[in-house]
Design a protein that fits this description.
The complex is a heterodimer of chains A (about 120) and B (about 210). Chain A is about 90% helix and about 0% strand. Chain A has about 120 residues and is mainly α. The longest helix of chain B is centred in the N-terminal third of the chain and has 24 residues, at about 40-60. The chains are: A mainly alpha (about 120), B alpha+beta (about 210).
């Protein structure tokens, strides 16, 4: 019975750890989303230098969380976000429409957070 | 498997076998796919393992849960009669039954009183009284009390804990070795002692 109790305690620790992880991921995602939205606003106001600056700021934040994301997220997801950052930067530099790329990046960030949550869809 | 308290695959109940296979598979994925963090495998293995420990802990307390999780043993032969319904239910053919009996040196099915199919799939056979081997008690023979041989020297190493447990000391050991014309424990491959004081000693073979 001692083993069963120890197992229950470990499961409890895992549950608490998982909820902390979900909170941390939401924090990362919220901060990134705020910065990306600022970049999008600047882009919509046709202030491209500010849009690029804000996007770089969001990228810096994403790279600062590298250690955490590499431990807890699949490399495929990390790479997808990286690629989308560079896609937007490329689009901003050549002057074409970047709104779709912004939306894609925001959707992917939301999706990563949703995938971490214990929902029926993410479990199944 | 050791934490489950089992030493062999054959000792696993069906649910434990499923857990073992799942754990092996979950452990293999992050190792094969470098894009998948190790934490995915670790967390899922720990979760399944903990759930298995909790379930088996609860099963220890509840007979009903134990029956639900691991099933119940069933009598394929009861009071000398083959229980055909149980055999059909367990998908056990007469060939498999006779094969299992032969494996246990039972050639005549009539000599079996009970054959119990255990939950881990093993078949235990209880012979009719007239077919069981004669015991010392039936023959009224006085037997020496069984004693367990304790290993004192294992491949040249003295096991001090065992020496203490069987109430001997280093001096006794040295004296015993001298009696066998051995100067050092490192020359001994195996030394055991029983409660009645009988000793088994095997020297180390010379290296070629």
């Amino acid at each position: 019975m001692k083993r069963a109790l120890a197992a229950a305690v470990i499961l409890l620790i895992l549950t608490v750890g998982s909820s902390l992880h979900i909170r941390k991921m939401n924090q990362i995602s919220d901060s990134l989303t705020a910065e990306i939205l600022r970049s999008l606003d600047a882009y919509q106001e046709e202030n491209r230098p500010l849009a690029v600056e804000k996007l770089y700021s969001a990228m810096r934040f994403w790279h600062e969380a590298d250690m955490y994301t590499h431990i807890f997220l699949s490399h495929e997801d990390i790479q997808r976000i990286n690629d989308e950052f560079y896609d937007i930067l490329l689009i901003l530099s050549d002057g074409s429409d970047a709104e779709h790329a912004y939306q894609r990046l925001l959707e992917n960030l939301t999706q990563i957070c949703l995938d971490e949550q214990p929902r029926l869809e993410s479990i199944l | 498997m050791r934490l489950m308290g089992k030493r062999q695959l054959g000792q696993l109940e069906p649910s434990e076998l499923v857990v073992s296979v799942l754990i092996a598979d979950l452990g293999a994925h992050p190792l094969q796919d470098i894009g998948m963090p190790m934490i995915y495998g670790i967390v899922s293995i720990v979760t399944i393992f903990c759930l298995e420990l909790i379930l088996s802990g609860l099963a220890l307390r509840s007979v009903r849960l134990r029956g639900f999780l691991w099933g119940k043993p069933c009598f394929l032969i009861e009071k000398g009669h083959i229980n055909q319904q149980e055999m059909r239910r367990n998908r056990f053919t007469i060939d498999e039954l006779t094969e299992e009996l032969r494996r246990q040196s039972v050639l005549d099915i009539q000599s079996v009183a009970y054959a119990v199919l255990e939950t881990d799939g093993t078949l235990n056979v209880i012979l009719r009284p007239e077919n069981q081997p004669v015991t010392a008690a039936q023959m009224n023979i006085q037997m020496e009390t069984a004693s367990y041989p304790v290993i004192l020297i294992d491949d040249g190493r003295i096991l001090s804990d065992n020496l203490r447990k069987c109430g001997r000391n280093q001096r006794w050991l040295e004296k015993t070795l001298r009696e066998h014309s051995i100067s050092k424990a490192s020359e001994v491959f195996l030394l055991t002692v029983r409660e009645n004081g009988s000793i088994y000693l095997a020297r180390k073979e010379n290296k070629r």
